[in-house]
Design a protein that fits this description.
Blueprint (H helix, E strand, L loop, with lengths): L2 H18 L24 H18 L5 H19 L12 H24 L4 H30 L3 H14 L16 H22 L7 E2 L2 E2 H16 L2 H26 L3 H27 L3 H12 L5 H7 L3 H16 L14 H4 L9 H7 L14 H32 L4 H20 L9 H21 L1
Antiparallel strand pairs: 1-2
Length: about 475
């Protein structure tokens, strides 16, 4: 075997492993230099480190690159400028963490995210290679679904010995043990698992089902593996008891209905009134089924059931008390603090990762006693050095990188939205599939951005990278 043949084989293996490993995002064994001190530790980073020199960097020079990469450069530049500016603010260390440590960690996190994006965006050179990548990703998530399904067993009927066995296996590769009342798949927490499914699977699965397409050869009549995975994924999201995951899933289902009905209206010439009536009927059925599923699985989780039991059990039914009752008021405080930070430093922000240094100073004027989570942050236990983040992607960018950072990031997103619309309006069925999936993914991303803020999680970058690669493949074919 020649050296070139061996490197090509290694590249193919690394490419497959990259997609298969995507579901594992809190891998226990990570060197400190590449994020070992954080909670977000994607296992796919290991094959990514092989792909960067073997494929990604060479392809940046020898292949056409998506134009969306150019729209990312202003955001990267804005982050670097805000990082340099933060050293002029005289920020004091917090919990033993200095500004330079925090900024360096944030820049490493962003570099990891950019590596994910570039690898996914430039390596698939054709639609066949895109389908192959999607196939490997679905295989990886099928394995994650098996692991998540094993966890649903102790949700339905708890058995200590069975739970301890699964928990022991989980802790062998993950930073965090399993929850007794919720499933988290191979991820750090249930919300991460629900977010993965919503951003990386549901858009492609829904588009495949509605377009009657499949990246696998197997099909029985109208039933495809994508259809089975879609149903499986919805059931698993139900058992995560993730409120953000439920909302995002509902938005994705309704958006898919709108896109599909609009496609039929534009292609078949149905009257607008008839199409709207069908859409409203189908949307009502989806909402009814969704509410029924929510109530059914909510019987297995008292905390989740608080969303509706509050109105039955509590006499003082104010909205503020409702947020406290469902444990959501802390998230609003994080967001309000981020916005206060932006108002104090509107142009460049306080620098990447530095929101935590301003948290106590920028807290809104409100009592902290009703929110124990905030009290633990203000007065941490001895030996604790965790620094808080806003848990909202757009507000974090606004607080840490200012208007310049958020504006440039939104331009990056709008460029991908343009790609998605371009593909969706194409006369070719294959491109319509990728366009619909991309539109659903971007909608899901906009919803999920209110509950995550890490650039190291691959979901954002893989979603946008597939969008960029599909648009480039389409443009190359049409030249």
């Amino acid at each position: 075997m020649s050296v070139r043949t061996g490197l090509h084989f290694l590249q193919r293996v690394a490419w497959a492993l990259f997609w298969i490993c995507l579901p594992v995002t809190s891998f226990r064994y990570f060197p400190p230099g590449i994020g070992g001190g954080t909670l977000v530790r994607p296992l796919s980073l290991y094959p990514l480190l092989l792909l960067l020199p073997l494929a990604t960097l060479p392809n940046l020079w020898r292949r056409p690159i998506p134009k969306t990469i150019l729209t990312l450069l202003p955001f990267v530049f804005a982050v670097l400028i805000s990082a340099a500016y933060s050293f002029l603010l005289g920020i004091e260390p917090v919990l033993g963490v200095t500004v330079d440590e925090r900024v360096l960690r944030a820049l490493i996190t962003l570099a990891i995210g950019l590596s994910f994006y570039l690898t996914v965006a430039v390596n698939p050179a054709s639609q066949a290679e895109l389908r192959s990548a999607l196939r490997w990703m679905l295989i990886g998530f099928s394995l994650a679904f098996v692991w998540g399904s094993l966890q649903t067993v102790y949700i339905l009927h708890f058995n200590r010995s069975y739970f301890d066995l699964l928990n022991h296996i989980q802790k062998a590769f993950s930073l965090r043990k399993l929850f007794t009342t919720r499933i988290s798949g191979p991820t750090y927490e249930p919300n991460w698992f629900a977010e993965q499914i919503n951003l990386l699977l549901i858009p492609w699965l829904l588009a495949a089902v509605l377009h009657g397409r499949s990246v696998f050869a197997w099909r029985w009549r109208w039933i495809t593996l994508e259809g089975l995975l879609f149903v499986w994924g919805v059931v698993l999201i139900a058992f995560t008891f993730s409120r953000a995951g439920y909302v995002n899933l509902a938005v994705l289902l309704l958006t898919a209905l709108v896109l599909w009905r609009w496609r039929l209206f534009s292609q078949r010439g149905f009257s607008l009134i008839k199409v709207t009536a069908r859409l409203l009927l189908e949307a009502s059925v989806v909402i009814a089924l969704f509410i029924g599923m929510t109530f059914a699985v909510g019987q297995k989780n008292d905390f989740f059931a608080r969303i509706w039991t509050y109105w039955l059990e509590v006499q003082d039914t104010s909205f503020e008390r409702f947020l406290y009752y469902i444990g959501f008021n802390a998230r609003l405080t994080y967001s309000a603090t981020a916005f206060n930070t932006f108002q104090a430093y509107p142009v460049l922000g306080v620098g990447p990762g530095n929101y935590a240094f301003f948290f106590e100073k920028m807290l809104p004027d409100q009592p902290l006693a009703p929110t124990p989570e905030l009290l633990r942050i203000i007065s941490p236990e001895e030996g604790s050095n965790r620094l808080i983040t806003p848990k909202n992607l757009f507000l974090r960018i606004l607080a840490e990188n200012g208007l310049i950072g958020l504006g440039s990031f939104l331009v990056f997103l709008v460029a991908h939205l343009g790609n998605a619309v371009y593909l969706w309006l194409s006369p070719h069925k294959e491109e319509q599939f990728w366009g619909m999936a991309a539109l659903l993914g971007i909608v899901g991303l906009l919803v999920a951005a209110f509950s995550f803020d890490s650039f190291a999680l691959p979901n954002l970058w893989v979603l946008l990278g597939l969008n960029a690669a599909a648009a480039l493949s389409s443009q190359s074919k049409n030249i």
